[in-house]
From TrEMBL:
Lineage, opening ranks: Eukaryota, Metazoa, Ecdysozoa, Arthropoda, Hexapoda
Domain AAA+ ATPase residues, every copy: 49-191
Top-level division of the source organism's lineage: Eukaryota
Organism whose genome encodes this protein: Brassicogethes aeneus
Portion of the full-length sequence here: 281 to 554 of 777
Protein name: AAA+ ATPase domain-containing protein
Subcellular location per the Swiss-Prot or TrEMBL entry: Membrane; Mitochondrion
Family listed: In the C-terminal section; belongs to the peptidase M41 family.
Length: 274
């Protein structure tokens, strides 16, 4: 797994201000930040804080970004792993990895555990699904270990578990029970206003002819169905296009060229997902 310590790690970390839009999702995760910062306050009130939340939504819309921002804002370590890394393991190694991850988290608490693409490890076990679609023996063991570790997490440990998926429908029901991932936070494609904000965020780092807000409204209108990752890509492509043409500044034309290039790709992808 990857461990990032926002206090000592590389860069300055991702802050909430780096996550454009997603107002409601940010509001929901801010409670976790507060809990990680002052667990005693919650305990003194007798409040049981949720162990974590499932971030649901299509790829590239800010799930990882938001999870990292929680860690940075709370100034706690961020331990992340991709669900598929567990299932590549054979001979009980997947379960051992889960144990290691939680062991490390206990050592580092307060901290955040983030499992990206949890559906890879959290598929319904065979009892809940017929045929070959259910989890195999190996990944069942891994999932069982994950459930054991989550249940064993004492509330005094101040470990928040966040996980992401775009396939909540295939998750094992046991993962969604109270006390496990019972909170769901939707991170969907950005709407018009959010796309404008994401453009402004990513255009900040580009050498533009005019200020970002000169372009952002039109770009937002041109990009329905784009994810935040697509928008970041447009901004970068526009700068590469300007470089190819040996310009010293990025223009509106470079930006629209980059949008055009990406429109075909996103249309194909969104069609495949629907
Ligand atoms: P995946 O499911 O593929 O892991 P994700 O939802 O976790 O996707 P992120 O990794 O958070 O997506 O986003 C990818 C990149 O897209 C970010 O690093 C960032 O550059 C950009 N991005 C996505 N959403 C936003 C946003 N709301 N604000 C600013 N940038 C964004």
């Amino acid at each position: 797994f990857t461990l990032v310590d926002p206090l000592t790690g590389p860069g300055k970390g991702v802050h909430f201000s780096d996550v454009a839009g997603l107002r409601e999702a940010k509001q929901e995760v801010k409670e976790f930040v507060d809990y990680l910062k002052r667990p005693e306050f919650y305990k003194s009130l007798g409040a049981k804080v949720p162990k974590g939340a499932l971030l649901l939504g299509p790829p590239g819309c800010g799930k990882t970004l938001l999870a990292k921002a929680v860690a940075t804002e709370a100034a706690v370590p961020f331990l992340s792993m991709n669900g598929s890394e567990f299932i590549e393991m054979i001979g009980g190694l997947g379960a051992a990895r889960v144990r290691d991850l939680f062991k490390e988290a206990r050592k580092r608490a307060p901290c955040i555990i983030y499992i990206d693409e949890i559906d890879a490890v959290g598929r319904k076990r065979s009892g809940q699904m017929g045929g070959s679609e259910g989890a195999s023996g190996e990944s069942e063991q891994t999932l069982n270990q994950l459930l054991v570790e989550m249940d064993g997490m004492a509330s005094k440990e101040s470990i928040i578990m966040l996980a992401s998926t775009n396939r909540a429908d295939i998750l094992d029901k046991a993962l969604l029970r109270p006390g496990r991932f019972d909170r769901h936070i939707l991170i969907d494609f950005p709407d018009l206003i959010e796309r404008k904000q994401i453009f402004e965020q990513h255009l900040k780092g580009i050498a533009l002819e005019h200020q970002p807000d000169h372009y952002s409204k039109r770009l937002a209108h041109l990009t329905p169905g784009f994810s935040g990752a697509d928008i970041a890509n447009v901004c970068n492509e526009s700068a590469l296009h300007a470089a190819r043409l040996k310009q010293s500044k990025v223009t509106g034309q470079n930006l629209e060229y980059a949008v055009e290039r990406l429109v075909g790709g996103t249309e194909k992808r969104n069609h495949a997902m629907s």
